[in-house]
Amino acid sequence: xxxxxxxxxxxxxxxxxxxxNTGNRGYLRGLADEFKESTNSVRVELxxxxxxxxxxxxxxxxxxxxxxxxxxxxxxxxxxIVSKYLxxxxxxxxxxxxxxxxxxxxxxGDYAEGKDSGTIxxxxxxxxxxxxxxxxxxxxxxxxIQRKLKVEVRDTIPAEGLSGLVVFEKESQ
Length: 173
Hints:
Layout: H1 2-5, H2 9-19, E1 26-27, H3 28-35, H4 39-51, E2 55-60, E3 63-68, H5 75-86, H6 88-99, E4 102-108, E5 119-126, H7 131-145, E6 148-154, E7 165-169
Parallel strand pairs: 5-6
Antiparallel strand pairs: 1-3, 2-3, 4-5, 4-7
Organism: Cyclobacterium jeungdonense
Protein name: ArsR family transcriptional regulator
């Protein structure tokens, strides 16, 4: 979907990196290595996105660190498009909302870091979740979003804490 609107594969990777998780940051060489792209193609796209105001940058010594500009008027819309591109909206709709007693859903691993690796790691926090129904939902969702799902279910969030992207949180009543 996104690749039919945006022809630059590097630009798509940058949008996924920075707009899938607000906390994601990157610098030129690190992004080039991560994307397995030339520094020049990454630099061109970083400059374009910065000039459009979609990315902020700051100097850290000799390197520029980039991240999404959350105050840009199109930030929420681009974030929503990236979420749809990655399948997060279908993931939540199909898996979380239909399971019943899910308190929290957290994306972990590569996708939390803005890397479209093909396997979404999802932690579901809840009680009495039907594992057979969950397996069925995972299969259907994988077909729909064309990505592999690795789902872990826990009663509580581990004490050691997690760094991830919270995509669903049930409001306490």
